[in-house]
Each structure stands twice: as structure tokens, then as C-alpha cells.
Amino acid sequence: MNAYIERMLGIVRQSGEIALSLIHRSEPTFKKDHSIFTRADKEISELVRQNLQDFLKLPGHILIDEEDEYRAQYLDEARLAQAQYLWASDPIDGTRVYANGMPHFGISLGLLKDLRPWLGVVYFPYLRELFYCDGENSYFLLDPFTPEETKVQIHPVDQDISHQSIFLLADSFIRRFFWKSKECHILIPACAVADLCWPTIGRACGALFKSYLWDFAGSWPMVKAAGLDIRFLKTGELIDAIHSELFDQDRTPWKLKEYCIVSSGRNFPVLQASIQERSVHPQ
Question: What does the pLDDT average to over 245-264?
Fold first, then answer.
């Protein structure tokens, strides 16, 4: 196991302890965009930056953290071209879920190499579940960081769509789209890392999302290990690396401009055809 993934696992373990200790006294407040910010977001963000300082001092390393107010400066093609290692941290993903004391929030830390997914760790401390990729293989763990830990390798999955199937949706879906399938059912977890990780172990046939880089960077290597792709909803174009034009550079820097589907290549056209955009929708 390389030094990067060992550090990442140590960081999310400590982050999980912080999140669990504060979940019932999270002291939520609102940012300018009305998203929620908690004590855990602040403390975990500081923990991540402190624990990565030695790497961030090296040439070619940058950190994109959800809670860093200066993160937009890196959304520049010239600066990205110099970033051999791009860290992306989401201290609490599913913050609204967390602030309401629900269990399926996650902690995500990803490391892109040459702007492509490489290493990733996503930890669901309340559920006692962990997903990670060490650069060669990806794993799903139950009871991580305990003597009862069990680990299984993530292998390619291509779930047949049936009346048992679940497709996971971004919480903005109902404002923009209709769901047309009478066979596949839908669920909105309101947690991007759940949307992305759960299909890798067969809990869903895929997901629709339009997230920030830090929401999907940690999950992306496991998505690839499961034989799933990230494709634009409208065009079906495959995303296999990041570049500045993928993201909104004005109002919401580092957020994808377009909705994407995570699924197997076989299921993509079926899921794409099940999503109909509303003719009129709120902006």
C-alpha cells in the first residue's frame, strides 16, 4: 500500500471520529448559497489540510477543498496542467442529511494523477462502511478500522434493469426532469457519494448527478473499478479526465455544467431514455 493511500485512510478515520462526535451538536449555519455548514465541516477541513501539508508543499500538488474560499483560483487550464497530483476533499458530503442526524452522510478524499482518477477513499462512519481504491484495486469494507473489519474487492458489475432496480437521483432532479421508466424505480439519498459508491456494489443500477469535483473525485476510482462510466446525460460523452471546461467557472466554480449518468455502458441508453426534461423548470 503506497504512502498516499495510507495517509488518506488515516485522515478519513480521524474525520469519521470527528463527524460522529459532533452529529448531535453540529451547530448548522447557512452559507451565501443557502447550503449548510457545520462544525464538522470546519474541523475536518482543517484536519485534511494539516495532514496533507507535507505533500502540498511539493511541486505539482494542489488541494481543492469544499470549504476553501480560494478554491476557484485553480479552475484554470494552465494551472491544472501543472497539477500532477490534485487532491479533492469533501469534509461532509450530504451535509443536510448530517445536520438532521441521518446516518448516510459520507467523508470523501480523492487524489487525481495527471487529472485522471487514481486514488480514492469514501467513508460512511455512521453506517460503518468504507470504499477505497489503492491505485490497482478497489474495495468495500464493513466495520473498517476495527477487529471485525471485513473487506471484499470491487469487481465489474452490470446489473440487469428490472422491477427490483433502483436508480439514484440528484435532489435537483424533480425540478428539472420527469422519470418515465415503469420498471426501474428511483431514490434520492441527498448524498452524492452514496449515489456514486452504492452502484459499485450493486445497490443501484446507476445514478444521475451534477456535482462539484469534491463530490465525485473520491468515488471515481471505485466507479471505474466496478466497470461503470461517467457520461453526460445529453450527449453520452464519456468523462475520463477533468479539464476546466467541464465546470461552471462563474456562479458555482468546480460544479459540473451538465448532468451526468453513472452506469454500465449497456444500461446507459436505457436510463438516458427514461429521463425527460421538463419544458419549463425553475432556474
Answer: 93
* Residue found by looking up cell 474525520 in the block: 15
276, 221 contact by CB (below 8 A): no
Q: Residue 222: CB partners within 8 Å, gap ≥ 6?
A: 120, 122, 131, 132, 133, 138, 154, 196, 197, 200
What is the rounded average pLDDT of the residues 198-221?
97
User: What is the Cα–Cα distance from 62 to 71, expressed in whole angstroms?
Assistant: 10
**pLDDT score of 280:** 64
pLDDT at 220: 98
pLDDT digits (tens, 9 = 90+) for 30-60: 887 778 899 999 999 999 999 999 999 999 9
- Domains in the chain with CATH codes: 3-153 (3.30.540.10), 166-277 (3.40.190.80)
The average pLDDT across 261-283 equals: 89
Q: At 259, which amino acid appears?
A: Y
Residue pair 7/52 in contact by the 8 Å Cβ criterion: yes
∠225-230-233 over CA atoms, to 5°? 155
pTM exceeds 0.70 for this model: yes
Please say whether the beta carbons of 138 and 199 come within 8 A: no
Q: Say if CB 106 and CB 191 are below 8 A apart.
A: yes
Buried b (16+ CB within 10 A) or exposed e, 85-120: bbbbbbbbbbbbbbbeeeebbbbbbbbbeebebbbb
